[in-house]
Specification:
The protein is 34% helix and 23% strand. The protein has 330 residues and is of the alpha/beta class. A hairpin with a 3-residue loop joins strand 12 and strand 13. Helix 3 (55-70) crosses helix 4 (94-102) and helix 8 crosses helix 9. The structure holds coenzyme A. Coenzyme A is lined by residues 32, 36-37, 40-41, 116, 155-156, 159-160, 195, 220, 222-223, 225-226, 229, 259-260, 287, 318.
């Protein structure tokens, strides 16, 4: 089955809405403070979709930029995978609208729901289609409008989340020095209620009661998520390095899901992995779920922090519970 091809990242793009919510804004909305939010999470501000913006509109903009950076026209795409838990509609998938908006009439499309791990899940899937020789140009998107599912009366969760989209174009390469080296995906459904949105699905459809009880908003067991996240981020970092026989010296950058600066510091401290090699932009974007890794990757590439030849680790965990990692040679 294996064609000898590798899947390489040919271009990255991102988009975040212009509107910003700062910690000072939250001080006016709920009983919190800039000091508490900064100390407990590392977040200072997040971008929030304005009226008329949505997961699809942001994904299209990020995807256009990724295609441009990859030197391809959207019409050349063979597959579009969109990781999101905040799709524009339950049916059809966001990827269908994205395909139409981009003008990619030949592409196979699907959404994938693995919350904050979704982008890495999609990357792992697209990689295999390319390696098998079935598809050439694959667009992998992480896009979220979490603000539309955030309860701005719940101070324990509302301060965390932001909106945005990021995308990469994967292409086949025969160059052995490039491409995705390793991907890993896991889940543990026992943790389904750590982070979830109770209503709006087939079990509890929308009704006056579900709206009144605020059941369409994301619910989170923050402390439990916190402990789980440290354990899994640490495991992923160790597993990715071990699988590719890497030491911290061999790694140019870890681009983790931007979850909480304390979680990232604890996970790396235990492994004595240097924080200078961990990309952090949570202060400016908050937690954008599936979009966080491609947004950070785009920044790291555009700022010249990483480039051709860099060894990059992507690690994420999220609702489900899910966790996933990748080792990529740019
Ligand atoms: N401002 C001020 N106080 C707040 C607050 C806020 N925004 N949110 C919670 N608190 C209070 C709590 O009510 C609690 O008060 P109490 O001691 O009087 O009961 C106190 O702060 C401690 O709450 P706790 O939940 O134990 O705080 P924490 O140190 O665990 O920090 C999170 C809370 C949410 C920041 C942290 O648990 C976290 O980041 N968890 C991971 C969540 C996550 O990443 N989810 C997405 C996963 S992809």
């Amino acid at each position: 089955m294996n064609s000898g091809l590798r899947a390489a990242i040919a271009g990255v793009g991102a988009y975040v809405p212009a509107k910003v919510l700062t910690n000072a804004d939250f001080e006016r909305m709920v009983d919190t403070s800039d000091e508490w939010i900064t100390k407990r999470t590392g977040i200072k501000e997040r971008h929030i979709a304005e009226e008329g913006e949505s997961t699809v509109s942001m994904a299209i903009e990020a995807s256009r930029r990724a295609c441009k950076n990859a030197g391809i026209e959207p019409g050349e795409l063979d597959m579009i995978a969109c990781a999101t838990i905040t799709p524009d509609t339950l049916c059809p998938s966001s990827a269908c609208y994205i395909q139409q908006g981009l003008g990619a009439p030949e592409a196979a499309v699907f959404d994938l729901s693995a919350a904050c791990s979704g982008f890495v899940y999609c990357l792992a899937i697209a990689r295999r289609f390319i390696e098998a020789g079935q598809f050439k140009n694959c667009l992998v998107i992480g896009a979220e409008t979490i603000s539309r599912f955030t309860d701005y009366e719940d101070r324990g969760s509302c301060i965390l989340f932001g909106d945005g989209a990021g995308a990469v174009v994967l292409k086949p390469t025969e160059d052995d020095a490039k491409g995705i080296r390793y991907t890993v995906m896991h889940a543990d459904g026992k943790g389904w209620d750590y982070i979830w949105i109770p209503a709006g699905g087939s079990k509890l459809p929308a009704s006056q009661q579900t709206v009144e009880q605020r059941l369409h908003y994301l619910k989170m067991r923050g402390r439990d998520v916190y402990k789980f996240a440290i354990e899994k981020m640490q495991w992923l970092l160790e597993d990715c390095m071990k699988a590719c026989d890497l030491t911290p010296d061999d790694v140019d950058l870890v681009v983790p899901h931007q979850v909480n600066i304390r979680i990232l510091k604890s996970a790396t401290e235990k492994l004595k992995f240097p924080m200078e090699k961990v990309y952090v932009n949570i202060d400016r974007y908050g937690n954008t779920s599936a979009a966080s890794i491609p947004i950070a990757l785009d920044e790291a590439v555009r700022s010249g922090r990483i480039g051709p030849g860099s060894t990059v680790l992507l690690i994420a965990f999220g609702a489900g519970l899910t966790w996933a990692g990748a080792v990529v040679k740019l």
